[in-house]
Structure formats: C-alpha cells, structure tokens
C-alpha cells in the first residue's frame, strides 16, 4: 500500500507539511517506511524518516514497533527543536532518534 498526505495551513506563519508511507502486508506482520517534511515560512524546518513493523495480535489489536529519525533544519520549531535561548554555535546536533512501542486497539 502506498499512501501520501499533504496539508497546508495559513496562519501568522505559513505552514505546509507532507508525508508518504509505503507498507506491505505479510500477515500477521506489516512492515512500513515513511518520509515527511515540514515547511514553515517557505523554509524546510523538519524532516522525518520512519521505519516500523505492525503485528496484528487479534482482529482489533495490534502492536507496533518503530524507529524515527528527526532532523530539525533552518531554525525550525517543534518537539525536537533546540530552545531559542541556546546559541546555535553551542548545538552540534539538531537530530533526534525516537524508538516507539505501542499497542493499538479498536473497541
């Protein structure tokens, strides 16, 4: 399955983001990869790459494990962006590695 999403918000600062996801079902596993970018005020401010696998425990319960690599660019903002009070010269790395284990269910 291939999925793509695009979103545009016009607020005080224009914001646009998009991502694309590719997955292939190998019952009961579904490995997937996704890539996305966030633009704020016409500058790319964030890019994210995700690798994961979904395991269907039951028809309405799944377990997902995923790894995300997040890179903040051009003085971007967000959860993994450096605080504005820190000098850019002090920061050597504007990246984050996120490992997630989640349980999803429908009731």
Structural features, described:
This protein has strands at residues 2-9, 15-23, 29-40, 43-58, 61-72, 95-105. The protein is an all-beta fold and 107 residues long. The protein is elongated and about 45 Å long. It contains no helices and 6 strands. The model has no long low-confidence stretch (mean pLDDT 81). It has a 6-stranded antiparallel sheet, with no helix packed on it. The two termini are 25 Å apart. The relative contact order is 0.18.
Q: What characteristics describe this protein?
A:
107 residues, mainly beta, 6-stranded antiparallel beta sheet, 0% helix, 64% strand, elongated
Strand-helix topology:
Blueprint: E1 2-9, E2 15-23, E3 29-40, E4 43-58, E5 61-72, E6 95-105
Antiparallel strand pairs: 1-2, 2-3, 3-4, 4-5, 5-6
Protein name: ABC-type sulfate transport system permease component
Organism: Vibrio variabilis
């Amino acid at each position: 399955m291939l999925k793509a999403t695009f979103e545009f918000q016009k607020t005080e600062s224009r914001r646009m983001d998009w991502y694309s996801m590719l997955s292939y079902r190998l019952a009961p596993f579904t490995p997937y990869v996704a890539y996305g970018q966030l633009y704020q005020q016409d500058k790319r401010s964030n890019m994210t790459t995700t690798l994961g696998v979904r395991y269907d425990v039951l028809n309405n319960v799944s377990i997902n494990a995923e790894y995300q690599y997040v890179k903040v660019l051009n003085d971007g903002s967000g959860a993994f962006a450096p605080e504005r009070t820190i000098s850019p010269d002090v920061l050597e790395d504007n990246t984050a590695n996120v490992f997630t284990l989640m349980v999803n269910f429908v009731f």
